[in-house]
Amino acid sequence: MDSMGRRRWAIAEGYIPSQSTGPAPAMTSHETACLLNTGERDAHVELTLFFKDREPAGPYRVTVPARRTLHLRFNDLQEPEPVPRDTDYASVLVSDEPIVVQHTRLDSRQAENALMTTIAFSE
Amino acid sequence: MDSMGRRRWAIAEGYIPSQSTGPAPAMTSHETACLLNTGERDAHVELTLFFKDREPAGPYRVTVPARRTLHLRFNDLQEPEPVPRDTDYASVLVSDEPIVVQHTRLDSRQAENALMTTIAFSE
Amino acid sequence: MDSMGRRRWAIAEGYIPSQSTGPAPAMTSHETACLLNTGERDAHVELTLFFKDREPAGPYRVTVPARRTLHLRFNDLQEPEPVPRDTDYASVLVSDEPIVVQHTRLDSRQAENALMTTIAFSE
Amino acid sequence: MDSMGRRRWAIAEGYIPSQSTGPAPAMTSHETACLLNTGERDAHVELTLFFKDREPAGPYRVTVPARRTLHLRFNDLQEPEPVPRDTDYASVLVSDEPIVVQHTRLDSRQAENALMTTIAFSE
């Protein structure tokens, strides 16, 4: 299949609640960037986090292999630093191959989980 | 009415929980691709699924008749293979006529259902 | 303010649950097309509904006055016919002035409500 | 990082429930415009609110510093006037620098919160 998507994406919302209800890891409150690489070459992605009152963090580096999807939990990012909980952030993803990015949050602060999603902004 | 939309669409998020609460099929946890064909010719759509660690599955073939909408549950796909539950996936839809695609999940793993939706990515 | 937006919009998802929990009308299960007209001329909008297995319904006609927003509940459409409950549908909106369209559902079939939203598809 | 985004954005949905369940401010029912400025210059943003049956309110003025994100709660807007609760509204944001805008609502009218999000409309 031909490659599809764009190389620069932004997600202006970001917030990982420190509290969760229900069995981990499925029901742990989390935010995810779902990355899809439909092309024939691996996509090397650099992710940068933006905050309200400090300099950006990153780049975080992940690879989305050819013809694969990677659902990247922001909760799992460790290098160069973990993502702070209960803190507003935003993210930009720059890839060397076209990809498609969709953002989700599962929020289980209360007994019943809430979900939200959107295709990210690209240009 | 004139045809409207595009021929290539992608949904980077995909995950069908194996657990549900409430009466089937309405409240069964499910993901749906809502397809709209406003034109005067039937749209033949090929859907391909992408995964984290295996080759893509498909194509799955569906037809959206002229001037009709088809809300396709990923749960119902059987040929060439069912969609695995509790597994990250993504999807690409290629149509021979312009269509509009919107993605939804109803998640009823917990007692109260959660919903999310987004217009899919097109180019 | 200058006018902003587009003249043709589509929402591929549509489904009004017949069941609700909580005080009406706020917590009645409903779908809404939020229409924004930032311009200096009233926008006359024709809405057409598409179904799975019958011809489209409409046009429904609404006016969004200059510099106003109209949050149109599909539940309230009566002419030329009400929107059937528990039935898949989709919608197209055609305006004579640029507008912006956002889609929402509040689903209160279960005790706790669920929400979803997306900017509609435009071209 | 290069600047990213657009200068004119619209969110057609707007509604702040007057009721909430759970600890303030995190679980207070709220709507947010998440603004991301990836560029090297501060972004000065003017926000205008549109209503169903009165003239628009604003402009509200906020600054998103260079390389920062601002998650602006509509609940917190005070000048030139607060945002009425339980009232349909819509919003337009005009910036002197490119930004990315994402809209969210956390709705805690009932015991368990609901969430929704979408990238706003830009042109």
Automatic annotation (TrEMBL), chains A, B, C, D:
Q: Which Gene3D superfamilies match?
A: TM1070-like (2.60.290.11)
Q: Pfam families given for it?
A: ASRT
InterPro entries named among the record's database cross-references: ASRT (IPR009794), TM1070-like_sf (IPR036698)
Q: What is the lineage of its organism?
A: Bacteria, Pseudomonadati, Myxococcota, Myxococcia, Myxococcales
Instruction: Report which superkingdom the organism of origin falls in.
Output: Bacteria
The name this protein goes by in its record: Sensory rhodopsin transducer
Source organism: Pyxidicoccus fallax
